[in-house]
């Protein structure tokens, strides 16, 4: 599996999104492909820093995958370690602002023709299967007026949405922050992918451009794996 990604700042001029893909040299045949997108909550004082902390989940997963009895257990152990390290950092460095900050966190693990998702917030994971199915794996964890009610960070550890799907050869996955996915829904992503023959760079550039044309002023981040 190959990945293409892009992230850029929105109208505020600095980027509070973050992303991670498997580190170079990782034995992905054995351990799978883990990737993550996080979007720092703009109104929080340290949303971008929390997002950068959140995507450390990818490195943590690979640390656990070497010793866990299953990839899913490794992912859950890594997520717990991520939360623990967040609260340890807050206490050790007296970072009270972190307790009123947060970020979305969407993680996809592709292993043995399955895709496992752990998700907090309103970034998204979309999959596109060889049979033509286009599926948004994630829910939006927010109130009707757009306030996040489940995210990484803050004063309390909150549970992640857990989903699993078949992911046969030839499938594609798109992780995106809401600066893109709010404006480009799953079926339209599929239409664009087909139009661009899933050429990743061109497709991502088009998604960014169309999001901006539709009114997006937020940070934009996309990872495509295929």
Descriptive terms for the model:
226 residues, alpha+beta, 6-stranded antiparallel sheet, 27% strand
Outline the structure in words.
The protein is globular. A hairpin with a 5-residue loop joins β6 (about 125-130) and β7 (about 135). The protein starts with a strand and ends with a strand. Strands 2, 3, 4, 5, 8 and 9 form a 6-stranded antiparallel beta sheet that branches. A 5-stranded antiparallel beta sheet has the order 1-11-10-6-7. About 30% of the residues lie in helices and about 25% in strands. By secondary structure, it is of the alpha+beta class. The relative contact order is 0.20. The chain has helices at about 30, 45-55, 55-65, 70-95, 180, 185-195, 200-215, and strands at about 5-10, 15-20, 35-40, 100-110, 115-120, 125-130, 135, 150-155, 160-165, 170-175, 220-225. The chain has 7 helices and 11 strands.
User: What best-fitting shape do the alpha-carbon axes yield?
Assistant: globular
The tally of helices reads 7
Radius of gyration: 17 Å
Count of β-strands? 11
The helix content, as a percent range, equals 25-40%
Strand content: 25-35%
> What is the average of the pLDDT values?
95
Instruction: List SSEs in N-to-C order.
Output: EEHEHHHEEEEEEEHHHE
* Low-confidence blocks of residues: none
Largest sheet: number of strands, sense, barrel closure = 6 strands, antiparallel
Structural class: alpha+beta
Termini, distance in Å? 5 Å
């Amino acid at each position: 599996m190959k990945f293409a990604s892009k992230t850029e700042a929105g109208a505020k001029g600095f980027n509070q999104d973050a992303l991670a893909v498997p580190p170079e040299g990782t034995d992905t045949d054995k351990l799978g492909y883990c990737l993550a997108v996080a979007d720092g909550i703009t109104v929080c004082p340290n949303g971008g820093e929390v997002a950068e902390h959140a995507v450390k989940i990818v490195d943590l997963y690979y640390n656990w995958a070497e010793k866990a009895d299953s990839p899913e257990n490794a992912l859950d152990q890594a997520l717990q370690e991520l939360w623990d390290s967040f609260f340890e950092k807050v206490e050790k460095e007296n970072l009270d602002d972190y307790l009123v900050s947060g970020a979305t966190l969407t993680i996809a693990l592709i292993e043995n023709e399955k895709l496992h998702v752990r998700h907090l917030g309103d970034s998204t994971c979309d999959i596109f299967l060889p049979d033509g199915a286009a599926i948004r794996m994630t829910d939006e964890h927010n109130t009707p007026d757009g306030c996040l009610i489940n995210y990484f960070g803050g004063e309390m550890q909150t549970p992640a949405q857990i989903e699993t799907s078949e992911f046969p050869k030839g499938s594609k996955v798109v992780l995106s922050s809401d600066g893109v996915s709010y404006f480009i829904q799953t079926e339209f992503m599929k239409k664009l992918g087909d139009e661009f023959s899933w050429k990743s760079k061109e497709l991502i550039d088009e998604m960014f451009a169309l999001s901006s044309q539709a009114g997006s002023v937020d940070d934009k981040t996309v990872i495509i794996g295929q």
